[in-house]
Amino acid sequence: MIDLPLQKQYLAPPLILISLCSLLMLINANPWLEFDRSVVQQQWWRVFTGQFMHSNWTHLALNALGVIFIWLLHGEHRSVKEYIAHILFLALWTGIGIWLMCPDIIIYTGLSGLLHGVIVWGALKDIQVGMRSGVLLFIGIWVKLVWEQIQGPSVEVGELINSQVAIEAHLIGAIGGLALSFTLLFKRHKNIT
To answer: Is Signal one of the keywords UniProt gives this record (predicted)?
Structure first.
């Protein structure tokens, strides 16, 4: 029997995230909010808001599927407060990482960087609560990231989303997920002592 996290506190945050991104796409907020390196110094908020913008509806749909997939895997691991804190932290982390470490990325949009961080944190939380699938997921995400760094971005996905896939953002987001995981170690250490 599959036990889906259908309680309001688990279902509302991912639905709100998808709705927010959909609304921003619907009103075409990209000119004001996407990460655009040429104006970030004057409009610093784009480092953060670019994560919630998308290049087209297919891009948004793929990211929404990612949000749903993560909810299915780890929805019960986060309170509403934690979900919001994780999304905000990873959006800022990924944006700053792109700004500082990826000078070739001029325009960046999408949730994929921060979603990689959410997956890494969720896999480590699975491991913490004794779910063996967490080990497989953790190894799998890092194999995917290494593969992307070796092979380069998917041309097919890039054509679908009308933009180059920012594999650097995936790696930056995953490292952000590791940084978030230190809270799991602190909680575990606090529970032991």
So the answer is: no
60 pLDDT band, cuts 50/70/90, is very high
Quote the DSSP letter at residue 107: E
3-state secondary structure of 108: strand
Residue 6 has pLDDT above 90, yes or no: no
**Which of 1-15, 93-107, 136-150 has the lowest average pLDDT?**
1-15
Report how far residue 144's alpha carbon sits from residue 159's, in angstroms, rounded to the nearest whole number.
Answer: 20
Please give the C-alpha separations between residue 84 and each of 10, 39, 90, 118, 181, in angstroms, as whole numbers. 12, 27, 10, 11, 15
Please name which of 152, 183, 186 lies closest in space to residue 168, comparing C-alpha atoms.
152
Does residue 164 sit in helix, strand or coil? Answer: coil
Cα gap 95→30, rounded to integer Å: 15
Tokens 């529970």 locate to: 191
Token reading at 18: 């998808």
* 8 Å CB contact between 104 and 169: no
Q: Answer left, alpha or beta for residue 130, where phi above 0 means left and psi between -120 and 50 means alpha.
A: left
Please give the structure tokens belonging to residue 56: 């087209």
Query: Does 1 score more than 50 pLDDT?
Result: no
